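Reviewer comment 2.1 asked that we show a complete input and output for one of the modelled complexes. We chose the zinc ion case, as it is the one discussed in the main text.
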Amino acid sequence: MTDIELVKSKLDIVEVISSYVPTVTRAGANYRALCPFHNEKSPSFMINPSLQIFKCFGCGKAGDAIAFIQEIERLEFPEALKVAAEKAGVELTGRSVQKDEKLEAEKKRLIEANELTAKFYHYILQSHKMGKAGRDYALKRQIDGERMVKFMVGFAPIQNDALKKFLISKGFNEKELVKWGLLVERNGKNIDKFRNRLMQCIFNIRGDVVGFSGRYIGTSKEAPKYLNSPETLVYKKNEMLYGLFHAKEALRKEKFAILVEGNIDILSSHRVGIENIVAPLGTAFTKNQATLLKRYVDEVYFSFDTDSAGTKALIRGMEILEEAGLKHKVIDLTGYQDADQLICTKPEEWPERIKNAKDTVEYLMIKLQEPYDMGSAEGKKAYSSVVLPIVASVKDSVSRNQYVKDLSLNLEVPPDTIINLLSHQKKSALPRNENAEVGNEVVKPSQKNELEEFFLSLLMQGDSMSEVGVKKEWLESPLNQKIMELVTSSTEGDFSEIESKLTEEERKSFENILMIDVSGVKDRKGEMEKLSKRLKKDFLKREILRLRSELRKTLDKDKVISQIDTYVKELSK
Ligand SMILES: [Zn+2]
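Response of the prediction step:
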């Protein structure tokens, strides 16, 4: 048994959660509590003792006991494992880790090279004659001495081999430096990747330097403005945020994060004392980054550039936060290109604008009118085609209804028309493949299958799993059919036996069904009978439809017609 397995086997998830959460009460086969990860008045946080997992149907957080500790104590996995081991009275042997020692050694060496590089560039910027251009630029961008030191800002000189010579002298070889993105190959020679650039370190959550972002300060038109480290063993763009290491304390204190697009915005904001600020790393904001932020805050204030690219990024960012269950607002930067420009021009206005952050959707509903002639029918149509998906992505129905009212005024159409249009919108404009990024994705019961899922949950959480008059075929979803078969044929109450027969994906759906709160059902037998009738009716309706379309193709029409008749009669019973 590995350490992880051992710790988990000695812990009871209900006990662990009860030690953090005030009231945990029994609800059928599950336990129920108010979710500690999001604000709620009625509990949607469920714990299943037989599978030793928890799941919140409100915010989507889910996992095992260690994941719960990790989330609630805001720890990295290894630290959470330590806490869990203590609770379980288990001494860790390190067997869980079983990491590839060679890989670990390389990671260590890579971080060492990065740290040396950071110090080297920092020294050049601070004190060396090769750093003059960098110092001039930093001065122009108002990067002050304290921030320079805190963030280890540096300068990569224009020479081809300044860093190369330095790192080789420290015992590194060219091959590994190319692999780690510190050198690049040019015309058969390895030269410094970053040249004539103001350098910002990318820190991981522990404060190790894992990569760099360099702002070009020369005049060549060919050089890209920003150049970033490639992904390496220790640097994953989609899973980290620029500035997070230096924002941690402030995030916990302020309970919201300011999300900007540029690294320099962050230095400027720190300069005026506002430190709860982070940025994506040269890519669009991702779901993984939203999940990461959720460990610290429950709300995000966007402060994206005011151009159309910034607005697009804002719309997408908002969808991601809605999916992740984080609240959001917009800091209105009207009059300025970005946060940095505002802070450099009018530093006293930055905290004011933060304080007056606006509702994201209301902000977008106004902002997006700009390019259109709202007096014309075409203008309104074009406008609604961009605004409707945004309103549709809002999860909270109370807010959504308010936006519908606002929109009906903007478009001068009745609210019902908007509601009708909204119902034709996709739930989210996010492409499917993005969803795969997040580990604890919620598989939401589809509207259509809710009835089937409720039935299955009630079936599993009853005293006896076998006594039902429902036939497997009555269920429409093949997965639900499979679950029903497993539930009725396996050892009663042994959910892990069922899980072992499901694929990873199916398991998620199964767990969701098992954790549906059915404790409100007082008369289980009566409820089962009602459900049974409904499921049968739905089944008959589907069959009649299917047979009718078959009728067109078949030669033996009489047989099909008599079958339809039988079903119609049954349906009218
Ligand atoms: Zn929750």
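Residues 35, 37-38, 45, 56, 58-59, 61 surround zinc ion (CB under 6 Å). We note this here for comparison with the apo prediction described in Section 3.2.
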